[in-house]
Records
---
Amino acid sequence: MSNTINIHMNQTPFTEVQTKSVINHNQNPQLKVVGFEKERIEPNTKVDISKESQLKQENSSQNTKKAGVTGPREDWENGSAELRRDARGESKTRASKFNPLESMRIDEPETYAKSMELTRRAGEMQQKWLAFGAEAPTEEELEEYQRLRDESFRIENDWFQRRCMATGTFQDPAEKRYATLNTLESMYSSEGHETSFNFYGTEEADSRNSLWRFYSKFNVLLSANMVKDLDNLNKFNKLVDKDKEDLSKLLEKITESIANMKDVEKAYEGNLEWLAFGVKLWDNGDVTYHANYKDCENKDGIMANSAEELLQMLMEKK
């Protein structure tokens, strides 16, 4: 892969946005990675399907998706783009476009995790009191509940003042990172299907971390550290050689993983409904491949350590 990546950034102004007060900022900064978008690492996703699996597929319904072709776009995919815009404060339908929790999540993942942990603990206390037949909370419990809520609010407000109002004028600190994710989605969405990017932090139970959050045919989940590393795209040529090499390897891994994921979809033959595919890149260097579908036994779908293994698992489904 070439070590020369040029970045072009432009921002398109939009009209005033009403939050608690009227604020001005730029929407959808577009980031273009010149010289990389044409590169593609060809995967070698080949699986020998057992005769038993082949017979199962031959006896399936007429709606069977055939191997060797990409499946048609389905109705459930149509809301994906709006879900992403809504999460990133770019929605065309929301009256208030700034999404503070999502912005904090991508801007300062550790701060977001602290606030969410306090909110979670307060929520558990509230659910306990609301349970059928539960005893009324004691004064000490109510004080602890209020302390958790107040501390969570203090953390969020501190972040807002430091990161959004540092200059005295509102500016969403997440805009550039949103632009990077939008650019990656544009690069890898094709053939009638969108590829959505999301990221995960330390809060495993947080639905915002979900691989399937945006209901796309193809889904990519990066770590918060990877998203932070991608900030360096706009200053690639100024990086030292080691940082250039690390960033190039990350982009190559993203490209290869997505290509493998899409090849699994193309190679799959069967009649699973609402079938979606995902890939998760882990900070330790691992890559896992995922699929989810209607009536899957696990709400988070199935997972494999390779594209080949995922295809084999799918082909064995009735």
---
Amino acid sequence: MKKYPDYYAEAEELAALLEQEGLPDDAKNIRDAIKFRFTATEILMGIKWHLHRFVSLGQGSEETREYAKKLILKIEKALP
């Protein structure tokens, strides 16, 4: 059986890292993208938008930005 990525779980892990790094607003934005969207596509697009913003601002640790970049790539492959 093929294992599929759990984008929401990965986004939650990233949000937890952001909180640990003192970026609670960024963590909240990611969680809100999951909580307040209606379809999977809207959720993934919202997560991707916030991750792009986070990465482009150069916030957080390099490790966290790399995690975000990898998740962006996974989401882009999943979106039509």
---
Amino acid sequence: MYTTAIQSQDEALTHLFFHCCLKDKELADAELETVSNKLVTVGLNKTLNFKDEIVKYREYSAEITDENEYLQYLVEQINPANELALFSYCAELVLSDDILAPEEETLLHNIAETLGISNEEQDIVKRLMIQRKVVETDKLF
């Protein structure tokens, strides 16, 4: 189970990012590139082998019976000092394939609740991430 597979802050952050990308059961090229860039940006490429971590994630992910409990475990391991930043990374990853499926919307809400982020803050971050995505893809300010 995930409690034995995830033992460090770096692993927890990596698995949270994977969970955001794979919530819709698909990993588009854009999502893979975005998650790779995020993992490198936060320096996890120095301590983890991403291929090993994705294998671990795929091995236990079907056994996640309570997503809120899973998210709580990950957040406890991460122990974030900047909750809005973490939430914005998750929102960016969920939106990286240009589709926000209902289960992804629920995931973002659950992550925000776990992080103690208000509905108003959630809406602002999601709007920001959506607008940034529009600017990046359509070059439209």
---
Amino acid sequence: MVKRSFDDWIQFFESTLLIIGSALLLSGIFFLVAFNWNQLDGFTKLGIVGSLNLIAYFLTIFFRKTTFYFEIGLTIIFFLTASALFTFGQIYQTGADVYDLFLGWAGLTFLLLLVSRSGVVTGFWFVLVAATVYLYSDQVSNETESYHLFTITSVLFGGAVVALDWIKTNIYSDKSKVFLSGLGLFITLSFLHSVASGLLWTGEEIKSLPEYSFYQILVPLLFFGFYYSYYRFVRFRLLNLTIILLFGLGQVFLLAVDLFKIWAYSSGVSFLLFALWITGYTLWAVTHLNHLRKTKLNTGDLP
């Protein structure tokens, strides 16, 4: 155990009090502005938000050689950009939908991806784009267009995920690539699952169209087969395989519900077959993932 001298304790308490005092001062300023926000004119509101953005930009440039502080600065800029757009929309009542603000947010923060080193901002940007697509489908497009939009989004995200694995650059670390690859694949398969789920609960006139077979069976099967083969045999990623098998469970669930007509409460046999099908797939998926993990650990090839 390291013994500290009296001077060390004095220095510790002084530093602690300085940090606490600074935090309380900043908190006081924040709550003072927030409490009187409605009393401020538009120019002052925009000036406050703009000043915060400029300060964040200058501090990020100043700490650009320290990766940790640099990424914190980029993250702050990422969210301050949204606050500037929301403040502008609040003051001038632009009448824009939420997806318009999210689309502008994504466009204005795209350049941050090119300088980000840890992938944190890139991950936030992926989620932002996915949210923008979902909001657009909810507020603007109709039901049929949403199926097409979600499928196109899945193809674009899926292509970006594969491209990310093949980028020969040292911008992102291996851990960041694993995280971004898993996040992008999760978004890709989530949109596909939304398409299949939406078609399942629509009316019979929609289910009678060829789109039902295309989106409910062919597209999920192609995506499942391609990404499973790719991330098992070409570029092994256990996290991605877990997401793929989870997507498979969701598709099995939807197909089982449709096949056994669970919503019709036909018979106890349907519920039993449904439960056995889901349980069987789950047991196989967990056993398969555990086997792959042990095999890669033994060969020393697990990332």
